Amino acid sequence: MTGFLNLFKPEGMSSAQAVNRVKRLLHTPCGHMGTLDPLACGVLPVGVGNAARLFDYFLSKNKRYAARFVFGVTTDTLDREGTPQANGRIPSAEEIANVLPDFTGELMQTPPAYSAVSVNGKRGYQLARSGQQVVLAAKKVTVHSFALTEQTAPAEFAFDIVCGGGTYIRALARDLAAALGTVGYMSYLCRKESGPFLCSAAVPVEELTAENIQSFLIPTDSVLPFPVLQGADARIFHGVGVKADAADGRYKLYRGDEFYGIARVEGGVARAEKKLC
Q1: Does this model's pTM top 0.90?
Q2: Which of 73-77, 138-142, 151-155 is predicted most confidently?
Q3: Domain boundaries, the chain
Q4: Active site positions, annotated
């Protein structure tokens, strides 16, 4: 059994708990394609069976989030579950909108201390919880769009954010507030899109049963954004590089009518890169 499940994870459930529910129902190895914090809700793609091998192909895909930030106060975790730490002023909607263009494009972003980033073999959040000072290296992220959508409370504002993989929305709240001369934290987060997986088509985790789960399984090849490699020599299925009249890049590879996996073409030579059948 292989394919994808487009799950809607509710607030209060970890990504691991959602995946474990799928494992119990299908009795099949699987893994999620991009963690959602327990306080967040939204799209959680799960690779079932061999489809879980495709994690790296989806890691860099764009995500869309609906987020809300509170200004004038921050917390140690940069979200609503943390301990309040500092106070500042509340900026106006106009002030916020004026600085948002500075937060699009390629940015250097320092991950939150409370994160899964590894530091000398331990997760950042483990060190932070033990009271240790955590300093993480900045990394390059991409924010494609960052729009203020409404003011939801005197100190809270809502945003629509489209970004590349690896972007921390909590860090955007921190850095946006700093640019406005204040502090802030993330009070709400919902992932609306993750690559080809949309919130509007996601099935709530709690609605999955042993009787219906297979009906929600999405064929692996239907969500891969690659063209089909046509007319490949059958030796490609035995690990042999074969001539290919195709541009360099990745392709979906079929053996007859069966989806075999992913091929890569380089310099006119095609090789099977990932076997999934």
Answers
A1: no
A2: 151-155
A3: 3-61+196-222, 63-194, 226-275
A4: 37
